[in-house]
Design brief:
Elements: H1 8-143, H2 147-163
Amino acid sequence: MSLITPDFGLLFWMTLIFAIVFFILAKFGFPLITGMVKKRSDSIEQSLREAEEARRTLKELASEQKKLIEEARKEQARILNEAAAAGDKIVQEARDQAREQTTAMIEKAREEIRIEQETARREITNEVTNLSIEVAEKLIRGHLSSAEKQNALIDKLIEEARAGRTTVN
């Protein structure tokens, strides 16, 4: 028997053993191997689908995040504008209120000054009247020191009353 050319019996037994091993492998090994390969392939496909879904979800979340950030910026700008407007309004109201209070205080001071002036005028008028009465009293006492002067003054006043004049010289 030569190593390069095998004998017919050896070929037969090798073929038979190969067929039996192939049959056993085909019956038990290949389905198990192909099942595992199929399961692994399905697992890889499922992982790819999940990865693609995760990628899509991340894109959606990123776009949603951008929208939320933009909305937050707009809301921040709106709040700042409202705060500035409210501050301006408060300042304007404070100015208006101060202006009104100042006007009211000026009016009150003017009224008090007017009242004080009126009171001073009355007092001065009273003083002038009192002084005039005192002066007139002293003058009349000096002019009416005698009975003749008193009678002459009474006659003069009666004549003026008849004539419609009320002034005394």
